[in-house]
Amino acid sequence: MFQVDGSAVVQLGAQDVEALRALVERCHAFMTLxxxxxxxxxxEAILESLPPGKTLEDKFAFGLYAEGKKELLGVxxxxxxxxxxxxxxxxxxxxxPDHRRAGLGARFVGAxxxxxxxxxxxxxxxxxxxxxxxxxxxxxxxxxxxxGMTLQKTPRRQNLIQLLHKPLAP
Length: 170
Hints:
Layout: E1 2-4, E2 7-11, H1 17-26, H2 28-35, H3 42-48, E3 59-65, E4 72-80, E5 87-95, H4 104-118, E6 123-129, H5 133-141, E7 145-153, E8 158-167
Parallel strand pairs: 5-6
Antiparallel strand pairs: 1-2, 2-3, 3-4, 4-5, 6-8, 7-8
Helix pairs in contact: 1-3
């Protein structure tokens, strides 16, 4: 698909569920902050959850493995053609806590943006939960702007979320 720091980013599938589960467990603080708890099927949900009207053909769960595909360092979950046909939405960016604050997330997002631009994307959207101000600052540093707010309901909590957008130059 594309590369980050010389490591290939791969599309995750059923063969990666155990590595994804391990990453989700290492990121339990984020999962609890956003969803109220670490759900036992969180890894499968990352691979399978879709917005209305989309199919698995539109779903991309990009995994960034450490050199030698030993450990999953991060995941970026995205769907093409949502909410507009020429846009993508990022459903999740999760980086192993031991690899945060060193620019890995920014490089992962930058490589993803370059790749989707090559796929004809005109923009990228995402949401950030209000209780996650660090994430909002991260995305704003990447050039994303808040375009509105709404409510998000999860099985355990209700979140006020900020809607963000970044247009991509051709």
